[in-house]
Amino acid sequence: MRKLSMEELNRLTVADFKNTRKFPLTLVLDNVRSLHNVGAAFRTCDAFAVEKIWLCGITGRPPQREITKTALGSTESVAWEYAATTVEALRQLKAAGYVLVAVEQTTGSVPLPAFEVEPGRPYALIMGNEVFGVDDEVLALCDAAVEIPQFGTKHSLNVSVAAGVVLWEFISRIAAAENQ
Predict the structure, then answer these.
(1) Fewer Cβ atoms within 10 Å of its own Cβ: the N or the C terminal residue of the chain?
(2) How many beta carbons lie within 10 A of that of residue 114, not counting itself?
(3) CB–CB of 81/55 below 8 Å?
(4) Report field, pTM of the whole predicted structure over 0.85
(5) Looking at residue 98, what is its pLDDT?
(6) Residue pair 59/129 in contact by the 8 Å Cβ criterion
């Protein structure tokens, strides 16, 4: 066994990535404070060919050193948009036909493995603030909430880690449905 070289990885160029088919997923960052978490979200969205990231409220926007350092160039490949409020972004997404799914522990949340992803439907996954989670006003607009099952003593994951877990789960299901 050996590591693959950069040539063997056969990665897309930024131009090719922009023209490639994306999964019908949008990531919405609801007042995420950490610029490193924002950069990590960009990098994850690039890895999983996500359509777009919405940066809302106090969420930092490129170009900023901490975002750029963590994103490793993915701020150039992943489409993004800023909204002054998450509510504003969600209203636009809802009007465009997206299913709005909060990643949050709520009275009505469904464990991620039990959530039914409908093939052909676009989804917007909303990730909340590192301390306060998804804002209550934002939750009121969501069609559903999912939570990641956890088995330790803590009740939360870092927002960028949670985004990676949830995006992978959704993409795995969408890809499996497309291959049937």
Answers:
(1) N
(2) 8
(3) yes
(4) yes
(5) 98
(6) no
